[in-house]
């Protein structure tokens, strides 16, 4: 999915104002009540490892992502952290974790409600008793809008990027078609990417958590506009 854009991922979301430091500080404070310092933390769909970079000082962190190009960047950033190329739907890891998190709406990439329930159950399966599972949801069906266009512009000394997109919807599937134009000292390139994410209701998320044996609540904050589902085992 991010094979071509992985190299530009951090620059694009920096331009969008994503604040990994503030998000990690919020998460760190929330986790203190659930897990002592140095507890194991697994970041599912960890991307380029920016959250792990912030959380590693307090927890024994580990990460996985389905995209090898993302993990390659994360390994450069975190050479001593265990990182795995694996899908969230069928990953395996050793042992249990006090905290399992799946952030930045990555859960939307599951195929349907059945896979949502199976994936949440897999997450819960590696959470130790008393631990927590945190999932940042994608848009709900009622919140998804198609009457807009999306644009991000990166303006760095040696990197200029324009990413343009227009949202679409097919039933309960949201589709983002992006066009990239990238200028670097080595030349100018253009490429496209398409992302399909499922639109689940709050009730569907809650059902998945409860079916996995978790007590769940939805925590809202300015940093996480769509909230965070927090389940305790």
Any guess at the CATH architecture of the largest domain?
3-Layer(aba) Sandwich
**Main sheet overview:** 7 strands, mixed
Fraction of helical residues: 25-40%
CATH class of the largest domain: Alpha Beta
Strand content: 35-45%
Summed up, what is this model?
This protein is of the alpha/beta class. The protein has helices at 9-15, 20-32, 50-55, 68-77, 113-125, 202-211, and strands spanning 40-44, 60-65, 83-85, 97-102, 127-135, 150-156, 159-170, 173-184, 187-198, 215-219, 228-232. Helices cover 25% and strands 35% of the residues.
What does this structure look like?
- The radius of gyration is 18 Å and the shape is globular.
- It is built from six helices and eleven strands.
- The protein has two domains: 6-140 and 200-232, 3-Layer(aba) Sandwich (Rossmann fold); 150-198, S-adenosyl-L-methionine-dependent methyltransferases (Single Sheet).
- It is of the alpha/beta class.
- α5 (113-125) crosses α6.
List the helices and strands and how they pair.
Elements: H1 9-15, H2 20-32, E1 40-44, H3 50-55, E2 60-65, H4 68-77, E3 83-85, E4 97-102, H5 113-125, E5 127-135, E6 150-156, E7 159-170, E8 173-184, E9 187-198, H6 202-211, E10 215-219, E11 228-232
Parallel strand pairs: 1-2, 1-4, 2-3, 4-5
Antiparallel strand pairs: 5-11, 6-7, 7-8, 8-9, 10-11
Helix pairs in contact: 5-6
Defining traits:
seven-stranded mixed sheet; globular; 2 domains; alpha/beta; four-stranded antiparallel sheet; 11 strands; S-adenosyl-L-methionine-dependent methyltransferases; 233 residues; Rossmann fold; 35% strand
């Amino acid at each position: 999915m991010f094979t071509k854009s992985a190299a530009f991922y951090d620059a694009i979301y920096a331009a969008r104002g994503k604040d990994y430091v503030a998000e990690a500080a919020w998460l760190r404070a929330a986790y203190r009540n659930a897990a002592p310092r140095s507890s194991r933390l697994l970041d599912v769909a960890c991307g380029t490892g920016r959250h792990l970079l912030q959380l590693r000082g307090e927890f024994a962190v580990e990460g996985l992502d389905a995209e090898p190009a993302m993990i390659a960047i994360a390994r450069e950033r975190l050479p001593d952290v265990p990182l795995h190329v694996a899908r969230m739907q069928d990953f395996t890891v050793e042992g249990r974790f006090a905290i399992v998190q799946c952030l930045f709406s990555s859960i939307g990439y599951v195929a349907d409600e059945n896979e949502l329930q199976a994936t949440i159950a897999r997450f819960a399966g590696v959470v130790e008793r008393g631990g927590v599972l945190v999932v940042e949801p994608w848009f709900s069906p009622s919140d998804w809008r198609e009457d807009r266009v999306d644009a991000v512009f990166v303006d760095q000394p040696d990197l200029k990027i324009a990413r343009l997109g227009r949202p679409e919807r097919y039933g309960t599937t949201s589709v983002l078609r992006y066009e990239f134009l990238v200028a670097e000292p080595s030349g100018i390139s253009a490429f496209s990417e398409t992302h399909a994410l499922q639109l689940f209701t709050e009730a569907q998320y809650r059902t998945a958590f409860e079916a996995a044996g978790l007590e769940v609540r939805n925590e809202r904050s300015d940093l996480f506009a769509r909230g965070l589902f927090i389940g305790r085992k």
